[in-house]
Amino acid sequence: MTKEKNIITNFIDGILFLDEKEELVLVNKKAEKFLNTSKKNILGKNLEELKKTGPLKEMLTNFSKKEVTINGKTIEASFINKKGLLIILRDITKEKMVKQMRNEFVSIVAHQLRTPISSIKWTLKMFLEESFGKINKEQEKYLEKVYTVNEKMVELINDLLNISRIEEGRYVYKPTATNLASLIEENIKQFKEKAKEKEINISFKKEGSCLEAVVDPEKIKLVLQNLIDNAIKYNDKGGSILIKLTSDKKNLTVSVKDTGLGIPKEQQKKIFSKFFRAKNVMKSDSEGSGLGLYINKEIIKAHKGKIWFQSVENKGTTFFFSLPLAKK
Ligand code: ADP
Questions:
Q1: Residue 68: what pLDDT?
Q2: 323 lines ligand 1 (CB under 6 A)
Q3: What is the pLDDT of residue 299?
């Protein structure tokens, strides 16, 4: 046995190879084990035959289906299509279990924290509304501060709960024909005060004949809130924000452009990852959890849309998202 063959035979991942004639010419030991078969049952068969029956059916019928469950094990398949088809099988059962346990932990903690945090909120509100008697300016100032910090915790817990819903497939979408222009206008109103505090001007332009799409308005509102909030938070004092809504035959596109900090080029790849915050914003006095864009990406993906951005550090950032138009 050659050195290479020995390595392939005993490799820790499952390996299968279909040659240029689409005939299965190689199956290593691990692949036999993962697929719960013996190579004599499958070796020499061609792609069409393998697609019809047997353990490879599910994987080969739908190349995009990367995970299959065989004998209680979760196997991840990767495909490399180069002078034949190389299939690499990896046992990800443990990885999946750890991920699930982590998600469950986050979900339990977030649920447990929700009630005490909201009772703090309502008690503070009653103090501020002087339901327990008059408060002086100094007391009001500190109560306002605690109230703001508490609001941030409420937001963080909501983000964590949304993430665990998304990851467990429990994030329910209620699509309905929605006018995006009105949704954007409502959102801008909500951010008026916040923008004014930083002397930021928000303008809105709409172009195109159809500005309606079938979406879940609550979820798209969340996406817009995250983008506008970021455009204010990571903008300079006196900066500006331009929101545009355009449409072509197939899609509606929204862009949110700011004149702020920008995203460092070398970190742009990670921007939609969970908990990621770029180093330039960590140095600024902004606060955040790095969860908003991850949630945005998942929401837009569920609407079969796209989300992307362009950014130059110290010049500004434009986030875009597009959504398929409502079919007439
Ligand atoms: P958060 O704002 O809570 O940190 P997000 O998921 O909304 O979390 O954003 C992740 C990171 O992406 C931010 O921490 C920041 O580094 C970067 N980012 C997002 N939007 C902008 C923007 N408009 N300008 C500059 N950086 C941004």
A1: 82
A2: no
A3: 96
CATH annotation of 3-91: 3.30.450.20
Question: How sure is the predictor about 189, in pLDDT bands with cuts at 50, 70 and 90?
Answer: very high
**152 pLDDT above the threshold of 80:** yes
Expressed in angstroms and rounded, the spacing between residue 231 Cα and the centre of ligand 1 is 8
Whether residue 328 has pLDDT greater than 60: no
64 pLDDT more than 70: no
pLDDT at 39 over 90: no
pLDDT the model gives residue 122: 95
Contacts of 56 (CB under 8 A, 6+ apart): 16, 35, 42, 50
d(CA 89, CA 157): 37
Ligand 1 touching residue 262 (CB < 6 A): yes
Q: Which CATH architecture has domain 95-167?
A: Orthogonal Bundle (1.10)
Q: Is 71 left (phi over 0), alpha (psi -120 to 50) or beta?
A: left
Q: Is any ligand 1 atom within 6 A of the Cβ of residue 316?
A: no
Spell out the domain ranges in the chain.
3-91, 95-167, 176-324
Does 281 sit in the ligand 1 pocket, CB within 6 Å? Answer: yes
* pLDDT of res. 296: 97
Residues 6+ apart with CB under 8 A from 180: 211, 212, 213, 215, 220, 245, 252, 254, 323
Domain 176-324 fold is: Heat Shock Protein 90 (3.30.565)
- Report the predicted TM-score, pTM, of the whole model to 2 decimal places: 0.79
Q: Which atom of ligand 1 is nearest to the CA of 290?
A: 8
Instruction: Say how many Å lie between the CA of residue 163 and the centre of ligand 1.
Output: 17
Which atom, in ligand 1's list, is nearest to the CA of 256?
A: 23
